[in-house]
Amino acid sequence: MADDGMLLNFSIPDSGILNKPQFKGGNWKQRQTAKKAAAHWHTKATERLTGVRAPKAPLPLSVNATDVNRTELGPRPERPHRSPEYDNDRPAKRPRVSGDSHKKVDDDASAADFRPHTDANVVKNPAAKQDTSKGGKQIISSLFSFNPTSTTQTLSTKPAEDAPVEPSNAPLTSELDTFTSLGISPTLAAHLLKKMDLKAPTAIQKAAVTQLIKDDSDAFIQAETGSGKTLAYLLPIVQRLMELSANMKKRKVDDSVSRDSGLFAIILAPTRELSKQIAHVLDNLLRCAHWLVATTVIGGEKKKSEKARLRKGINILVATPGRLADHLEHTKALDVSNVRWLVLDEGDRLMELGFEDEIQKIVGNLNLRMRAQKDEASRIPGLPAKRTTVLCSATMKLDVERLGEISLKDAVHIRSDPADRTENEGADDEDQAFLAPAQLKQSYAVVAPKLRLVSLISFLKRAFARKGSVMKVIVFISCADSVDFHFDILTSNLEEEKVAAKDDAKEDTKKEDDEEANVKKSKKKSVVQSDPTKIAVTHAESPSLSPHTHKVTTYRLHGSLPQSLRTSTLAHFTKNNEPAVLLATDVASRGLDLPNVDLVVEFDPAFAREDHLHRIGRTARAGRDGRACIFLMPGCEEGYVDILKTDRKDGETGIHIGRQDAEEILKKGLVTSGVMKDKTEYMEKATDLQLAVERWALASPARLESARRAYQSHVRAYATHVAAERGYFDIKQLHLGHLAKAFALRERPSGMKVPGLRTGAGRESKKPAKIRGAATGANKSAVASKAALEDTKVDDTEEAAKMRKAVRAREKFMRHAGMADEFNLG
Ligand SMILES: Nc1ncnc2c1ncn2[C@@H]1O[C@H](COP(=O)(O)OP(=O)(O)OP(=O)(O)O)[C@@H](O)[C@H]1O
């Protein structure tokens, strides 16, 4: 019988066509797994039978009649098929067009990074994606996508000139310019030559020594960095005291000057480090006049032992203002009635750090004691009747004038003799003395925020690649937290992290959706290094910077470290004859004379142009060669190059400042073979490095906290550029999401919380009042400062007010960031 047209009409019972299996035995987990597997198999089998796709949850163990009948009505509209990876790969937001990304400054920035990847924007990291395996949302974005483009890229730069430049701060070369020709005694001159290896004076020494030996007028000394200002004021003081001693001997009034004869000279310096350095130069000088005794009183040292030294008798005192004012009030043994020389070194810095009150107190006290002594007529024979005050400062602006009013009377302005210097012809008169040394080779690197960290590592790797080419490097970073973070990164073994990252990448392609496995894997493979920010460690070998041939040591220095540690760190860095890099805040920018510094890197630009000149002045000292490179981000920061160019006039075009791009830095630093396998090799290496750094940070909560802290402090510091320069460093233009990547962070800026410290540094509405205020201020002043820069007629008082405002903002920032100690307030 033909069965054509015959209909089978049966329905499937509610209980399903397949029986629900019973699971017995094993533990709970095994039973659950078996149950799930059976359910899955059951569903698939039913689907095959009925042709209907079962809804995902809850999993039915049977298909009922209604579902079958539905097939007659037409299939239920199906959801589009989603691959298991779909959830991970799906962009969280509509992708923005490349180049837009830097415009939006909130924590959205991070989200903007995770967009569907294409070959064009992703090199290695398979898609910028959210990774939830480590708890909390993480954003793993590509390093090379959506970076802002340089605004000055197309402008051609003048090629570097090979013509040798005459050093501007070197000792004079004329045979007539000797120390004795300036009035220095043959004994002292011989000591300078034989014991200190100083053959001839520098231009500023010639001018200052001649003036200060011949008369007792007050003086204002202004000269460029590394030109020997310390000896310019120390030599005449020691010479005069040696003369005094010789005269006393001749007259047989007394044996000679000894430590009991009284305190004759005080030198005030803004920082403890600088005070110690001055004291060290002085001690070297006094080796030829052993009867003269010098000491230091500086903040951070034990007052009791300082008092004991003062009681024993002192002739020359080097001090920080706070500590000296304290001793004047509380140490009876400190008699200042014989003080005839007062030196205020780094005067602008003294004022910037708010030492005005202390200096006023000190000067008042000295005046009072001198007047009292006049009445007693007990003056040491030969001791000048008048006190000479010498003020050394980079600039003669603003607060320095005020300091001059407090301390100087009819001062002589001492600068390098123009006849000895052929440079600077076009420089304006006021700033003539404060310029970068002529022989210093300057450059700038345009690096997008995401690429900052890998670029820094590459830059340093390249610098130390060949043994002996670069011995010492100083990297300036805006705040202590950031110094700590970068120190931890550079002293960690990132290679091990890279291996772990590669293994993970392979595994990830196999089992991308297995979260549980990922968590276990990351726990197992994360190489747990020593915990960061162990305060006692201030130097360590840097595996990522050390080539096979030699080791590179990384140091850190900032004001939050205990004084003893700072002193020992500087001493270690100074004595180290092997390649070394010092990561430092501006605590190392002023006056410090660290030998053999070949290169200064301003990873974070200075808060003001003057600070920049002081920083780069740590190299190219006393006629030696030196290089300096400043990192700038694409966009408004690039305009800062114009400020750098006005530094020293060189014909009509200004100085030549070389330019480098991140791409070039990464290629040179990471592709060590020198020959790239393909065009993207450097990108792969940079991505590996970045992943290693991120993995390093994720390996311990302490590291993550240190990274967040560094990031937040960095953002805060960014808001404190001086008003006149805030147009170039506009916090509103700062891409916080991209910047977070340079701190190894995979979090949205708004989600960051650092225990006990700052809260949210991302979304504007969530910013702490401090940042909000600063950003708004920055915004307003950006307009004002741009106008100020354009308007050359801005008067001094207006500029002074702006500068004061900026200084106050910076002080506030320092206090807020727990950096009051940054400048060693004595
Ligand atoms: N006449 C000289 N001949 C050779 N070297 C000198 C001479 N005078 C000083 N120096 C060296 O020059 C270096 C810089 O000196 P110093 O620290 O006094 O400079 P400075 O002008 O105070 O710099 P800064 O403005 O950065 O504080 C020191 O290493 C010092 O030994």
What would you note in describing this structure?
Its EC number is 3.6.4.13. It catalyses: ATP + H2O = ADP + phosphate + H(+). The protein is of the alpha/beta class and 826 residues long. Among the domains are: 237 residues, Rossmann fold, CATH 3.40.50.300; 244 residues, Rossmann fold, CATH 3.40.50. The strands form three sheets. An eight-stranded mixed sheet has the order 12-13-14-11-15-16-10-17. It has a seven-stranded parallel sheet with strand order 5-6-4-7-8-3-9, with helices on both faces. α16 crosses α22. The longest helix is centred in the N-terminal third of the chain and has 23 residues. The radius of gyration is 34 Å and the shape is elongated. The N terminus and C terminus are likely disordered. The structure holds adenosine-5'-triphosphate. Adenosine-5'-triphosphate binds next to α7.
Describe the structure in brief.
By secondary structure, this protein is of the alpha/beta class. Helices cover 40% and strands 9% of the residues. Among the domains are: 179-415, P-loop containing nucleotide triphosphate hydrolases (Rossmann fold); 440-498 and 534-718, P-loop containing nucleotide triphosphate hydrolases (Rossmann fold, 3-Layer(aba) Sandwich), CATH 3.40.50.300.
